[in-house]
Records
---
Amino acid sequence: MDQFLITGRSRIAGEVTISGAKNAALPLLAAMILAETPTTLNNVPSLQDVRTLIKLIEGLGITIEKNGNVVTCDTSTIENYFAPYELVKTMRASILVLGPLLARFGEAEVSLPGGCAIGSRPVDQHLKAFEAMGADIKVENGYVIAKAPEGGRLIGCDFSFDMVTVGGTENVLIAATLAKGTTVLENCAREPEVVDLANMLVAMGAKIEGIGTSTLTIEGVESLKGCEYSVVADRIETGSYLAGALMTEGDVTAKNTDPSLLIPVLQKFEEMGAVVTTGDDWIRVQMTGRPKPVDIRTQPHPGFPTDMQAQLMAVCCLAEGTSTISENIFENRYMHVPELKRMGADIQVDGHTAIVRGVEAFNAAPVMATDPRASMSLVMAAAAAEGETLIDRIYHIDRGYENVEEKLRGLGVKIKRVNPVTDNAESEEANNG
Ligand code: UD1
C-alpha cells in the first residue's frame, strides 16, 4: 500500500490550480444516465471515486469514456439497471444511480452502501422520498429493489427531508425531473454541488425552481437531452491547500476556483489572523505568526463544511490558545484526532466537541490516513513538523485530491510516495468525504 514520506519543516507557499469538485462530478455523472442524447462533462477530476462511478455506469451497458478531464456518455446502449455490491461498497455515492435509473427506466437494483468509517450513514431519506413518489421499494439481500408505479413513471409529490442530506437531495432531485407532475422538496441541502447538479439538469431540459434554496420545485418533463457542462471548482480542495499557509506562516494562491463558495472557511482564516485577498477566480491567503484560536461548528451549507473540519483542526493545533470544534454532521468524524495527537497535538474529545489546546509545533511520527479530508490534515501537519513523517493508507487522499503530490510539491512540500501499490487493497473500504 502506498505511503507518503514528508520531510518538514516547510513553508507552504506558491500557486496551486484547483480541479473540478469530486462531490459535484459524482452526481453529475449519475445524472448523465437521464439523457437520451450524448452528454459531455468537462473539468472532471481524475480520482479513484470518479473511476469507480464510471465503471459502475459502464456496467449498465452505457457507453462512457474519460479522456483527460472530459467525460462523454451515450446512454442508448444501456442493457441493465443493476449496481453490484462489489462496486457500491467502495464508494457510498454509488447510490446516486438509483434515482436516475428509477426515473428513466422505471426500475433499478442497487446494492446498499453499508457503513463507513465516519458513521452509519443510512440512505433512509432517499428511499422514503422515492416511496412518496409512488415507487415500490424492497430491501432484499443487501440490495434496494425499486420499481416505479404503473406506467413506469414516478409521480410528483410534496416531500420534506427529516434532515439536511446532500446525497438525498441530489438523488431525489434527479429522479423528480422525469416524474409525472410537480414535486416540491423541502429542507433540501443547499451545497454548491447541489446547485451545480440543478444547473446541469436545467441545461438538459429539466424545469427546476428555487435552485440554491432549501425548497426545490420540479415540474417533471417527458424526457431530457444531453448537454455540455463543466464541473464547478472543488471548494474543499481549495480550502485544504489554503489551510497549509496558516500552519506554516505561508502564502498560497489558489487559482481556477470560486471565492463565493468558501465564505465560511475564509472567514475563519481571517479570524485566525490570515490576510485573505480574492479575485473572480482566485484566493490568496498570507499568514505571519501563530494562528489565533477559534470556535468552529460544522453545519450544512452555508455553514462551516464538515469536509474542512479536520484541516482546520490541524491549524487549531498550532494556535496560540484554546479552540473549540463541534462536529454536527457526522457522528464519528474525529478519527484524525489520535493521529494528530501522535504528532504532539493536545486535543480532548467529548462527544461531538473537541477542545484543542494549541502547541508550538508538531513533531514527526508515523501516522495513518482515515478519510480523504482527515488525510490532508495529516499531510499539512507533516509539512509543518520537524523531521520525517510517514503517512500510511494514503489511498484515502488519492480518492479526494487530483495530482496531490505534484500540487503539494509546487507549494514547497517535500513529499515522496513510497511502497508503490501491488494489490488493490484500497478498494476494500466504503468511505466518503
Ligand atoms: C456528502 C459529501 C460528503 C460530505 C457530506 C456532508 C458527496 C459524494 N459526499 O455526503 O463529502 O461530508 O455530504 O456535507 O457529495 N443521513 C441520514 N439518512 C439519509 C441520508 C443522510 O441519516 O438518508 C445522515 C448521514 O448519516 C449524515 C448526515 O445525514 O449524518 C449528512 O449526510 P449527507 O448530507 O447525506 O452526506 P453524503 O451525501 O453522504
---
Amino acid sequence: MNRQTYIEPAIRSIAGGFIVILGTLIYVFPAWSWLWLSLLFFVGLNLFQSGFTKFCMLEKLLKKLHFRSELDEIRDLSQANAEAEAGAAFYDTLGLLNEVVIELSQDGKLAFLSDHWLQLLGSDHRSNAHFLGRPFMVFVNKQDRESLGFLLHALLSGDRDPVSMRFRMLREDRLEHWVEGNFALYRKQGLVRGIRGVLRDVTEAYVQEKRISHMAMHDTLTNLPNRTYLDDRIGEEIKRSNINGSKFALLFIDLDNFKQVNDLHGHKSGDQLLIDVGNILRANLRATDVLARWGGDEFVVLLPFSQDVEIARKVASEMMRKLQTNLEKMDSDMYVTLSIGIAVYPDDGDSGESLLMLADKALFYAKSQGRNNIQMFSDLQTHATGFEDVDMTSHFVAAVKQNLLQVNYQPVMDANDHASMVGVEALARWHDDKYGWVSPASFIPMAENLGLINEVGRQILEQAMHHFSQRSGLCTGVKLAVNVSNRQLVSDDFYPMIMAMVERFGLMPGQIKLEITESIALHGVEQARGHLQKLSDAGFTLSLDDFGTGFSSLSLVHELPFDEIKIDISFVRRIKTPEGKILVRTIVDMGHAMQLALVAEGVEDRETADILREMGVEMLQGYYFSRPMPQEECTNFIRGLSAMDGTSAAPCSPVLPVA
Ligand code: C2E
Ligand code: MG
Ligand code: MG
C-alpha cells in the first residue's frame, strides 16, 4: 500500500468526527445554531466535493457485501469495450497473416480459427463457424494422424511444450498440402484451457526440398538411387541386421562390353542401354531391395535376407537371365551381359566400405573368369591364389583408369655395325605400390581378360606417339615399334583409332611398326588378312612377333601381309648349340626367301650378335645393347651414340662402340 491509501481514510475519519462534534454542539447550544449550521454546510460542501460519497465507510461496507455501485458498472463496461475493441483489432490482424491461428479445446476440438483456415483447407464455406466444435484431427491426412495425435498428447500431458511437426491437411480438393504446425499450451489464470497453434502452408517449400533431396540422392540419367543414398541404406541395414540377426548382400554389377557398345553405337545409345538395364534389373527386385547406380556401367544391389546366403547367388543369376530375355524381347541390337561380385554382411565384412570393396574384388575376379560370371567373395577366399589375382587385378584396373601405365623403349640396332639404331620398341610398364613392377607378361593377359586391352593399347600408343612426335631424341629417323594385341587388332575401332592418332601427332604410318603375334591366325586367316591388309595399305610396317612360339607355320606368314619376322628369344637363346643354329638358320633363309626382313630379340651378348649377323639377320634387339628404358634415358642413350659418332644433329645413325 502507498501513502495515499492511508491519508484518504484518515481525512475521512477526521471529517466524520468533526461532523459528529458539530451535531452535538448544535444540539447542546441551539442559540449558536446559525453559526453551527453554516459551519456544517461549509464542511459538508467540502466533503461532498472531495468525493465523500465515494469513500464513505458505508460504500466500503456495501462493496464488502458485493453490492456494486453504478460507477463500478460504468467502469466495467468501459473496460469490456476497450478489451472487445482490442480483441477485434487482434483478430483483424490475424486475418492478415498467411498462417492460420487455431485454438483447440482439451479434447481436441476446434475452438477458434483465424480467417486463412478456409484457404488452407481449400474450402468453399463462407465462414469458419462451420468448423468450430469439430475435432481437429478430422482435417488432418490419415497417414499423419497418429504421429500428430501422439505429439499433441505429449503437449497436453506436459511432457513437451511447445511442439512442432510437418503434416498433411485433408483438403476438400484432395490435393496434398503440407503444413508446418507449431503448438503450445493455452493457459488462463494458471489453468490449462487447451492448445493454441499456428499452421503454415509449406507445400511449395516441401516439394522443392523433396526435389533437391531426391536429386542429391539419385542418379540423373537412370533416376536410380546414387552412392550417397546407397551408403545411407547400407548403414540402416547394418543396424537392422544387428538387431534382427539377419544378413544382407551387396551385389556389385558391371556390364560386360559396355565400352564397345558405347563406341559402336554412340553415347546416346549407351545411355539408353543403361536406363533399360536399370529398369529391367529394378523390375526384378523386391521393394525392400535397393538398386543403385554406382557410376559408369556399374550398379550395386543391396539385398536383405534372413540367413541363406545362396539367395544372393540365385538373385544374381536370375538378374542375368532376365536381362538377356528382356533385351531380346526389346529387339535391342545392343547385347550386354553382366559380371557380378557378391559380398555378405556380416560374414565377409563389418562395414559398408569393406563390403563394397570385397564385392568389387569378387566382381573383378568374375570378369577375369571370362565375364558373364558371378563370384561370391567367400568362395574366393577359399582359393587363396584366386584372391591374390583379384587383388592385383583390382589394382591394375585402378591404374588403367588413372592412366598410370608407362612406356619404356628398347633400341633396335642395325646388325651390320651393331651400332646404328634403327628403331625402338615401346614396351608397357606398370608399377604398383603393393606389387612393385609387374611384368607385361602378367598384366597384358589380365587386360585382355578384363576387356581392357583396347584401352591399355590406346594409352600406350598415345604415350609412345606423343614421345615420338616431340623430336626429343626418339627422332623420326627410326621406327617406333608398338605391340598390338590380337584382340585389339580385330576390334573394329583399332584402324580408325590409330589413323586418327597418327594424324593427331603429325606422324606418318611409315614411321610406325606394329608387332603382332602369330596367334592372330586363330581368329581365322581371312579375318586376320582383312585387318592386316588395311593397315599395310595405310603404310604401317607389320612385324610378326615371337615367331616360332605359336602353332602357325611359315606358310601362314606367306598368306598375310607381314614385312618382317621377329625371331623369338627362345631360339636366340639356343643359337650357340648346333641344333639351335640350324633352327635359326632355317627361319632366316625361309624369311629371306619370302622377302621378309629379320629381327632377333633377346640378344644378350656379343657372340650371339655376331652369329646372327653372320646368318643375315638385319636387326638386333636385346640387353647386350640396352635394356628397355624410360623416354629420357633412351634420349640420353641416343645422344651418347651420336656423341661417339661425332654427329650432333642426327641421333638416328650413331655408332655404338662394340666391346
Ligand atoms: P615382346 O614384344 O616379345 O617384347 C620383348 C620382351 O623381351 C620384352 O619383355 C623385353 O623386355 C624382353 N627382352 C628384350 N631384350 C631381352 C634380353 O636380352 N633378354 C631377356 N631375357 N629379355 C629381353 P617385356 O617388356 O617384359 O614384355 C613382355 C611381353 O609383353 C612383350 O613381348 C609383349 O608381347 C608384351 N607387351 C609389352 N608391352 C606391350 C604393349 O604395349 N601391348 C601389348 N599388346 N603387349 C605388350
Ligand atoms: Mg614385341
Ligand atoms: Mg617378342
